[in-house]
Structures are given as structure tokens and as C-alpha cells.
Amino acid sequence: MITKLEGMPEGVIGFQATGEIAAVDYRRTVIPALTEAARAGDVRFLLVVPSFDGMTGGALWEDAKVGMEHLRAWKRVALVTDIEWMRQATALFGWMSPGELKVFPLARRAEATAWVAA
Questions:
Q1: Cα separation of 8 and 46, whole Å?
Q2: What is the DSSP string of 88-112?
Q3: Cβ(63)–Cβ(25) under 8 Å?
Q4: Are 60 and 25 contacting, i.e. CB atoms less than 8 angstroms apart?
Q5: Could you tell me the residue ranges of all domains in the chain?
Q6: pLDDT mean values, one per 10 residues, the chain (118 residues)
Q7: Of 16, 76, 71, whose CA–CA distance to 45 is shortest?
Q8: At what angle do helices 31-40 and 57-69 cross, to 10 degrees?
Q9: What CATH number labels 2-117?
């Protein structure tokens, strides 16, 4: 499930992902917010992942499309998680992400929010 985080700094869209992620999560939550942010200018994206049980095939497809549809709009992405394999995968493949990408532990969520907003 993906839920939108409220109280983000101006220009930042934030989400929390937990459990299993489905395509409907992207269509209902992420895509509308991302489209609106891209229209307004730079995309500054905060993703908090305290737990993760996988993604459906449709969610994987939606995830790939999300990154490419507004390729030039991505400014910064902050991934906030203590899940070690996500941290390692981001270290290995983060260079392929649009915009600047940085990973933070859950305990440094406030710092991640400030960084992505800067």
C-alpha cells in the first residue's frame, strides 16, 4: 500500500509504502500527485519504506512508467528506509534514477525531508 504523506514542505510530494505494492497504489496515489508536481516545476519526491512485502507485476510496470513520463522534471528523490537490500540496490543502481537520489535511515527522516526540499 502507498499512502500520501501530509505536511510536506512546499514543492515536495511524499509517500509511505508498506506491505505489498499494487498497480492501483500508483494509479490512485502516486501518478496524480506526480503529474501535478511536474506541471508546477521540479519533482521533489520523498519515499518512506518502513516495511516491504513485494510488488505486483502491474506495480513494477507502473513504477517504470512513473520515472520515464516526467523524466526532465525529477530534481531530487529521498528514499528513507532501514531495509538493507533496498539501500544496497540504490547504491548500485541509483545512477539510473532521474534526478539526484539519496538514501536515509528511518531515524533521519526529518533530514531527508529537508534535503529533498532544498
A1: 9
A2: HHHHHHGGGSSSEEEEE-GGGHHHH
A3: no
A4: no
A5: 2-117
A6: 95 95 89 88 94 86 71 88 93 82 97 97
A7: 76
A8: 0
A9: 3.30.750.24
